[in-house]
Amino acid sequence: MSRLAVRNLDNEEIGDIELDDDVFGVPVRRDILARVVNWQLAKRRAGTHKTKGISEIQGTTKKPYKQKGTGRARQGSLRSPQFRGGARIFGPVVRSHEFNLQKKVRRLGLKSALSAKLEEGKLVVIDAAHIEEAKTKALRIRLEALSWDSVLIIDGPAVDQNFARAARNLPRVEVLPQQGANVYDILRCDTLVLTREAVQHLEARLK
Questions:
Q1: What ranges do the domains of the chain cover?
Q2: What secondary structure letter does DSSP report for 135?
Q3: Dist CA 179 CA 176 (whole Å)
Q4: Cα 166–172–173 angle (5° rounding)?
Q5: Pairing mode of beta strands 13-19, 2-7
Q6: Whole-angstrom Cα distance, residue 190 to residue 47?
Q7: 2-43+100-206 topology per CATH
């Protein structure tokens, strides 16, 4: 078990918490992290790229000139790819870029990402992500006092609405519920901040 101090948003230490080594102390597998990140980014791709095949090109179906006797190469259609405005052979088509990744690999990737942040000393546990008023300026002042520039804050199953509203205008601050915790966002941020509730749910979910 790893023990970590628990702070509040005023940067005051108010206790500590034990982190389960089965979730926060696994070896960091860079290969697994790469696989999970590639899987996440592939799911995000729109796959709407498209070029026209010969059946989709508008134009005449008439043979351009007779087969023999012209001294030129034989041609069957002006819609062929060798002509300007013609089709493209083996061009991209609308498709999904998603692929399957086993649940155990995705789970191991999330454990590895959490363990990497703890190993780097960039994992912070706070008591709660809650503010009285949804004021971006007030939250920005608090985050600057904590030296949190690029930060991902993961709360319990429900995010405090005032906190979420105050954070959404801050460009390098992201707030997620615990079920939205993912490898790509964890690795992309500099500091990972978990609430006590988030730690409990993540440990229950990943053990």
A1: 2-43+100-206, 51-91
A2: -
A3: 8
A4: 40
A5: antiparallel
A6: 30
A7: Ribosomal Protein L4; Chain: A; (3.40.1370)
Q: What tens digit of pLDDT does each residue of 183-206 get?
A: 999 999 999 999 999 999 999 999
Tell me the CB-side half-sphere exposure of residue 161, using CA atoms within 13 A.
0
Alpha-carbon 176 to chain mean position: 12
Phi, psi of 5, deg, nearest 5: -70, 145
For the cut 80, the answer to whether the pLDDT of residue 172 exceeds it is yes
pLDDT score at 188? 95
Neighbours of 17 (CB within 10 A): 16
Single-letter code of the amino acid located at 192: L
pLDDT tens by residue, 28-77: 999 999 999 999 999 999 999 999 999 999 998 899 999 999 999 999 99
Residue with tokens 């709360």: 155
User: Can you give the length of the chain in residues?
Assistant: 207
Among all chains, which residue has been given the structure tokens 């615990």? 178
Is residue 1 over pLDDT 80?
Answer: no
Max CA pair span of the chain: 93
CB contact burial 143-152 (16+ within 10 A = b; e otherwise)? beebebeebb
């390098």: which residue's tokens?
Answer: 172
